[in-house]
Amino acid sequence: MNTSIEPGAPTRLTSQAMAFVLAGGRGSRLEELTDRRAKPAVHFGGKSRIIDFPLSNALNSGIRKMAIATQYKAHSLIRHMQRGWGFFRAERNEYLDILPASQRVEEGKWYLGTADAVTQNIDIVDDYGVKYVIVLAGDHVYKMDYEVMLRQHVETGADVTVGCLTVPRHEATAFGVMHIDERDRIVDFLEKPADPPGTPSDPDVALASMGIYVFDWDFLRGLLLDDMNDAESSHDFGHDLIPLLVSRGAAYAHRFSESCVMSGLETSPYWRDVGTIDSFWQANIDLTEFVPPLDLYDQKWPIWTYAEHTPPAKFIHDEEDRRGQAIQSLISGDTIISGSDVHNSLLFTGNRVHSYSTLDHVVALPYAEVGRHAQLSRCVIDSRVRIPNHLVIGQDPEEDAKWFRRTAKGVTLITQDMLDRRAAALD
């Protein structure tokens, strides 16, 4: 962690801040994985949900007041928050509020944009009595100490401080890019530019927005009320408020590399938007590497989540062609590898992998079951899916695409509905 601030120090500005987490989006690029759940509620890393990362960052940074704005198919997300994040105690001045879009301001008015999600809950934020608000996306995977960003915000006197990734210029065309001066003041904001501007210190890299914003609450409150009355606004931070503040000359960029938390095993700052099937699969598979780019074993910066009470993982059978084993893989609790061969895969809680099957570079979400003699590679298996005996995935692209969702990069998503349609067609 690139900071000299001692964790838990009483002078941390995060004790005067709250985290407002935007978790209402579907995440449609995850295709069928978000048919029944919002993107922040999608499982990740063997036992967590995506939203656990920004919430854990906030908690580990010293923030004890949080609000989560939900909207799209929020049941599994809300249930996860109740089960895994219900330890906040009001008598200790700790709060975690779940804020579904509930027409609190006007009948028929749901959250119209990211800024409107905060605007509709101004009275709740007022009740927190905080000095600073950190606006977070609920659907990114990373480890970050928000205290460092907050201190920069105070020292510069910025109206807003925007968290930014340092990326090669040729990769920045897919992001909102911050053009900065020598003091890291943002002089222009460009949405997915064809020719991204470099930075003053290195013209070959650009600063891409992470969707993390720090504000003084009194200032943000007034800004939101003005935006609410602007009929031309889409009421969105990235499209409306941030460009407005950039034009006023009081927006500053904060580099993720300055506040990224690294245990010593990571070699570079790690941040992922796991918003596509390919990126979701890759980020999970990354964790199976000998030295993973994201260290989930860092006890100094734990990723908090709902801890299910499960029995240990189990490996059974030890015959020449029927040996239960997993190599360079992450295997979660209550999983049984029965006479099958698992390589470079991540299996979530409660998986059952039956005899003579092989799994290679597979991400299997909770309580999936793989039948005998199945051969699976480069695929994502949705939760509670029952893979039939002898199913082969990853060897015939045309056959895979006929029944399942296969990406351009060759990753196959398997859901129970897809399997049921295939079974009906083959009957």
Automatic annotation (TrEMBL):
Entries under PROSITE patterns matching the protein: ADP_GLC_PYROPHOSPH_1 (PS00808), ADP_GLC_PYROPHOSPH_2 (PS00809), ADP_GLC_PYROPHOSPH_3 (PS00810)
Span of domain Glucose-1-phosphate adenylyltransferase/Bifunctional protein GlmU-like C-terminal hexapeptide: 311-414
Binding site for alpha-D-glucose 1-phosphate: 111, 176, 191-192, 209
Domain Nucleotidyl transferase: 19-288
Keyword ATP-binding annotated: yes
Annotated metabolic or biological route of this protein: Glycan biosynthesis; glycogen biosynthesis
GO biological process: glycogen biosynthetic process
GO molecular function annotation: ATP binding; glucose-1-phosphate adenylyltransferase activity
Site for Could play a key role in the communication between the regulatory and the substrate sites, residues: 71, 110
Pfam family, one: NTP_transferase
Entry keywords, A to Z: ATP-binding, Carbohydrate metabolism, Glycogen biosynthesis, Glycogen metabolism, Nucleotide-binding, Nucleotidyltransferase, Transferase
NCBIfam families reported for this sequence: glgC, PRK00725.1, PRK00844.1
PANTHER family: GLUCOSE-1-PHOSPHATE ADENYLYLTRANSFERASE, GLUCOSE-1-PHOSPHATE ADENYLYLTRANSFERASE-RELATED
Family: Belongs to the bacterial/plant glucose-1-phosphate adenylyltransferase family.
Role of this protein: Involved in the biosynthesis of ADP-glucose, a building block required for the elongation reactions to produce glycogen. Catalyzes the reaction between ATP and alpha-D-glucose 1-phosphate (G1P) to produce pyrophosphate and ADP-Glc.
Protein name (record): Glucose-1-phosphate adenylyltransferase
Species this protein is from: Nesterenkonia xinjiangensis
